[in-house]
Amino acid sequence: MRWGYWMPVFGGWLRNVDDENMEASWDYVKRLAIRSEELGYDLSLIAELNLNDIKGEEAPSLDAWSTAAALAAVTSKLELMVAVRPTFHNPALLAKQASNIDNISGGRLSLNVVSSWWRDEAEKYGVHFEQHDDRYARTAEWLTVIDNVWKKDHYSFAGKYYQVKENVLQPKPAARPRPTIYAGGESEAAKELISTTCDAYVMHGDTPQSIGKRISDMRERRERKGLPPMKFGVAAYSIVRDTEQEVKKEIERITNVREGSAGYKNYQQWLAGTQLEQRVSLEDYSVSNRGLRSGLTGTPAQIADKIEEFEQAGVDLFLLQCSPQLEEMERFSEAVMMSSLSS
After folding, report:
1. Kind and range of the H or E element at 8?
2. Beta carbons within 8 Å of 28's beta carbon, 6+ residues apart
3. Is 76 exposed, middle or buried, given 0-12, 13-18 or 19+ CB atoms closer than 10 A?
4. Per-residue model confidence as pLDDT tens digits over 224-238
5. Residue 81 in 3-state DSSP?
6. Prediction pTM value
7. Can you tell me the distance from the alpha carbon of 195 to that of 186, in angstroms, rounded to the nearest whole number?
8. Please, which residues bridge with residue 113 across strands?
9. pLDDT tens across 264-273, in order?
10. What is the mean pLDDT of the chain?
11. Domain spans of the chain, in order of start
12. Mean pLDDT across the stretch 270-295?
């Protein structure tokens, strides 16, 4: 199992707690990244939103790509999975930028290709907002361009959305044959595209049984296409406590979201902009990426049992969120990760 975590570029993950003691600042994410390597974490996902989805639009949020470049220079082992939305980035230019960061890091950059669900953010930043299936048609071209300019020079492409002519990109990425490309999505368009073009599939939080069904589906799609196996990751919100009573108290504290709060505003817009297999309740939404559904909440022994279920389902990677991030990651590393290594 590989252990990853979401970099708190929004200052936290809870929509009902104003101050989670992890401000959206370079000082905090730098300290967290360096410490996470010492704790044994393998990867950090750096989300990309220009407005703050968690704390409200007026709150600060860090830019994903400049943050990734800075982190590449101050870490030595951590994989930096940077979210990228094709509607916000020309593929050849992004390929150049990503290749440079990959070389700075010594081959530790990867991409998390995500859809742009937030209409208000796109309009506020002057980006055309497309409907769901149009976004995936664009993403298919985007991935074709970025893959080819990473691997060869003098590449040309003429599509509906993008055109490049005799592209030359040097230096190429340090990672071979290319940086890992992760993506997630639950619509048919998303799953078909991801199974064809990406290296790994990442999922919102859910039960091991539900995650196992999605993994089986994606494996079958890959096999039908004659492609090599994918890797599979799942989001999870972690709460490690000594007693079940303490866990219940913490869950009640973090899911008490009220209509009209800063983090509630875009709930309906998010539902309208996505195509999900299951309806998401406001309690699910209170914690980012449906992380509570994964069930990594409980005593260390209970969480270890749940992790074993996910491993049997085919999960290779957890992407953890917790609050406050640094202190809870230290607790999780000592109580869960280190215990699994010694057992």
Report:
1. none
2. 8, 22
3. exposed
4. 999 999 999 999 999
5. strand
6. 0.91
7. 12
8. 84, 183
9. 555 555 555 5
10. 91
11. 2-342
12. 66
